Amino acid sequence: MSAHLPQTRIKTIIKSSSDVEVVSKESTYLITRAAELFIKKLANQAYKETKRAKKLEYKNIANVVNSDHCYEFLREIIPRKITVREYLKLMKEQGVDIGSDYSVSSSEESSSSEEEKEEEKEEEEIEQETTDTSRNKNDHESSDSDVIVLD
């Protein structure tokens, strides 16, 4: 299965630049096809990172973008997700004063880590239930909302 980007949308994006006045059909086609191939390459690399899991998630794509120098231009657009605690630690290391309202005390830190573990466990249980439910459905039905199909 191969997905195609809408050429009219690509043409609109190209024309949004003040440097471009006219765009030929051929150039729009080539740019569209190049974008499709780029997306396919990025998705395939991210899929390899999942160790052949059934789902491709944001974190997989973000890991590829942040580890491969080819995608350096996307690092600000597709950053790795970090927790608030990690963000605060980074800001502290860089000497940025964010105020006392955002500091995390050690007691809050330990209780929040327990809460995070519980939340992760609940998310895993929900994901497992969803997986079990979807397996019980007719094999011909599929949900495209969480799954990216690769050729």
UniProtKB/TrEMBL annotation:
GO terms for molecular function: protein heterodimerization activity. Residues 111-130 have a biased composition (Acidic residues). One of its GO terms (cellular component) is CHRAC. CDD domains: HFD_CHRAC1-like. It comes from the Eukaryota. Gene3D superfamilies: Histone, subunit A. It is found in: Nucleus. InterPro entries: CBFA_NFYB_domain (IPR003958), Histone-fold (IPR009072), Transcr_DNA_Rep_Reg (IPR050568). Residues 99-151 are annotated as: Disordered. GO terms for biological process: chromatin remodeling; DNA-templated DNA replication. Keywords: Nucleus. Residues 132-143 have a biased composition (Basic and acidic residues). Residues 4-55 form the Transcription factor CBF/NF-Y/archaeal histone domain. PANTHER family: CHROMATIN ACCESSIBILITY COMPLEX PROTEIN 1 (PTHR10252:SF54), HISTONE-LIKE TRANSCRIPTION FACTOR CCAAT-RELATED (PTHR10252). This is Transcription factor CBF/NF-Y/archaeal histone domain-containing protein. It comes from Ignelater luminosus.
